[in-house]
Amino acid sequence: MLTYVPFYNINFTVGVGDKRKIGRGTLKGLSVEAKRFKLGTEKLSIDFSSTKGGPIGDNYRSFVDEIVRFTRKRTPLIGVKKWGDVKQIVKDKIARDIMVCYSLAPAYDKLILCNILIVHNLLVIPFLQVRWNIENNDEEKARIWKIAKYRYKGWRAQLSATYKAYNSYHERMRHKPDDLDIVEWHYLVLYFGSDKFQVPSL
Fold first, then answer.
1. Which domain holds residue 85?
2. Residue 141 domain flag
3. What are the pLDDT digits (tens) for 49-86?
4. Is 132:141 a contact under the CB 8 Å cutoff?
5. Which strands sit side by side in the sheet containing 100-106, from one edge to the other?
6. Among 91, 93, 122, 175, which is 20 to 30 Å from 83 by CA?
7. Across the strands, what pairs with 47?
8. What does the alpha-carbon distance between residue 143 and residue 11 come to, in Å, rounded to a whole number?
9. In angstroms, rounded to a whole number, what is the distance separating the alpha carbons of residues 57 and 64?
10. Is 41 a member of any domain?
């Protein structure tokens, strides 16, 4: 029996030219991983309302938190005013992140070199794990994107509120949100103060 090691339990180094922080996103999503570890399974159950279509059940909050986590990780803040400006390839990556994740298992056959990685001196094979009991289809993706859209809009509103809480550029830069890098926050400070700024619409 193979024992898998999820990617989120391994420390990777950001590659050259990758300016995105590994920790980008909400820490709430990490509680979902803790729940998976406690239950001994990658796959969690989620149900949806037959009337409103939204997530319901015991894992409702975990499902939403995980969408928030990957939405903040994937969606850009620079050059984007609203969810409608986010490229489809980014939305597809968010849906993929929610549905599946790559995990690692010890590799015993050294001949499968094309699929083998070496992580912390351990020979491993990457494979996919299903995160939630949902199908990989357009209907389920649309549900994920609906939540992501609403939460992305709320995130930008929070950032705008942080901007409005201070009266000068230097004060605003000193109070940069922890999950943004300085370039992103500099851009947003200039954007929120510009004549072109409008509250993100649908």
1. 5-192
2. yes
3. 888 888 888 888 989 999 999 999 999 999 998 999 99
4. no
5. 5-6, 100-106, 122-130, 117-119
6. 175
7. 56
8. 31
9. 12
10. yes
- Residue 21 sits at φ, ψ, to 5 deg, of -75, 140
List 129's β-bridge partners, or say none. Answer: 101
AA letter at 132: W
Do 21 and 178 meet the contact criterion of CB atoms below 8 Å apart?
A: no
Query: What is the tally of structural domains in the chain?
Result: 1
Joined tokens for residue 198:
């409008």
Q: Give the Cα separation of 28 and 61 in Å (integer).
A: 10
Global pTM exceeds 0.85: no
Model pLDDT for residues 155-192, shown as the tens digit of each residue = 999 999 999 999 999 999 999 999 899 999 999 999 99
Nearest Cα residue to 10 out of 92, 120, 118? 120
- Span 99-153, pLDDT tens digits: 876 554 444 444 444 444 444 455 544 555 667 778 889 999 999 999 999 999 9
**Phi and psi dihedrals of 34, rounded to 5?**
-65, -40
202 falls within a domain: no
Q: What whole-number distance in Å separates Cα of residue 125 and Cα of residue 116?
A: 5
Using alpha carbons, list the distances in angstroms from residue 167 to 33, 174, 187: 39, 12, 16
Where do we find the tokens 């500099």?
186
